[in-house]
Amino acid sequence: MALTGPGHAEGARPWLFVVNATDRDTAYRTLTRLPTYHQWLRDIRTPDACPGDAELVADECHPGTSAPGTYIDLRDEQARALAEPAAPGRLPAPTAAPAPRRSR
Predict the structure, then answer these.
(1) Cα–Cα distance measured from residue 27 to residue 74, given in angstroms and rounded to the nearest whole number
(2) What's the distance, Cα to Cα, between the start and end of the chain in Å?
(3) How far apart are CA 12 and CA 53, in angstroms?
(4) pLDDT in tens, 79-100
(5) Rounded to an integer, what distance in angstroms lies between the CA atom of residue 17 and that of residue 70?
(6) Residues pairing with 2 in the sheet
């Protein structure tokens, strides 16, 4: 996934992230659920920037990876998040209903 970051308007290259997915929509949805992505958004935000997600650079998104070190690989974080019982963005399993009270 390629996303705009600081300096994009001046010609800076997009930031590249790698996740496992079968298509671009699923990859973007997966990326936006990972804590590292949200930390990255906080880190790149400038005081004069409006809050919100970075923009997708669709023509730079593609299957596979570039040379190591040219992207942020989030596949391990993605695997850990999927293995957790209540991964971020998911609601915990409902608790059992309390036993009914008996009247006296």
Answers:
(1) 11
(2) 63
(3) 17
(4) 998 887 654 555 444 444 444 4
(5) 9
(6) 16
Cβ atoms of residues 86 and 31 within 8 Å: no
In this prediction the pTM is: 0.71
The answer to whether 6 and 44 have CB atoms below 8 angstroms apart is yes
CB 31 within 8 A of CB 19: yes
3-state per-residue secondary structure call for 15-35: EEEECCCCCHHHHHHHHCCCH
Alpha-carbon Rg for the chain, nearest whole angstrom, is 19
